[in-house]
Design brief:
Structural class: mainly alpha
Largest sheet: 2 strands, antiparallel
Strand order of the largest sheet: 1-2
Order of helices and strands: HHHHHHEEHH
Oligomer: single chain
Number of strands: 2
Shape: globular
Number of helices: 8
Strand content: under 5%
Number of domains: 2
Helix content: 40-55%
Distance between the termini: 41 Å
């Protein structure tokens, strides 16, 4: 039986509430949440647990933190994932920047036995969309970069290249994302190379990498 938008919306709201509690370091019981949703809708607690894993998958594609213990699972109808993505934006009060549908197409194509060289588009069309951004303090970025001395604070390798102005190239990453309520401070930001930055967003081991930062970089404070 297909899931209604009401069921998906209730699941996303419950997920966001649990995720916020986890980010605040507060205790909660996932099983009780599933049971409450099961009582509200004609589905088993197990069905809601798996749906939560689908929501984790959407968060993972967006490069954001998912709830621990709810490993991302993408086995769901292709039409459901964009709805979950839309509902996350709606209930978090942010402007949607659709990404799931595109990433799913890429994932499916990569698994084809034979993929001919595409013609592409010499003049791709433009799409103007609203997005949510945060005002960042340039002094924080400058301090974190300067303090790194050109060494990635994750892999401890030198910056991959030097920019035309002579500055080394590293990227500043907030360990607790600004979208997740993180602060724009030097105690929540690190200078990393592009590879490590992508790993922090999309790596399967990013929680382990985050934990390593708090052990090895003394200025950092877990939020």
């Amino acid at each position: 039986m297909e899931w209604s938008r009401e069921e998906l919306s209730a699941s996303v709201i419950a997920y966001i509430e649990m995720r916020d509690l986890e980010l605040q370091g507060k205790k909660f019981t996932k099983k009780r949440v599933y049971e409450r949703l099961s009582e509200q809708f004609a589905r088993s607690p197990k069905a809601f647990e798996y749906r939560m894993q689908n929501i984790s998958y959407v968060y993972s594609v967006l490069g954001r933190q998912w709830i621990s213990g709810l490993k991302p699972a993408k086995n769901v109808g292709a039409n459901v994932l964009p709805i979950i993505e839309e509902l996350i934006s709606q209930h978090e009060g942010s402007a949607p920047v659709p990404l799931i549908e595109f990433e799913e197409k890429v994932s499916k194509l990569r698994r084809e036995a034979r993929l001919p060289t595409p013609q592409g588009n010499a003049t791709p069309s433009k799409q103007i969309k609203e997005s949510t951004s945060f005002s960042r303090d340039p002094k924080v970025v400058a301090w974190v970069l300067k303090n790194s001395n050109g060494i990635c604070e994750s892999c401890n390798e030198p910056a991959p290249f030097t920019k035309p102005d002579g500055d080394f190239y590293l990227e500043v990453h907030h360990l607790r994302r600004l979208a997740d309520g993180g602060s724009d401070t030097v105690t929540n930001a690190v200078a990393v190379c592009p590879n490590c930055h992508r790993r922090l967003h999309y790596g399967n081991d990013r929680n382990t990498v985050l934990s390593t930062f708090y052990r090895t970089v003394s200025r950092l404070v877990k939020e």
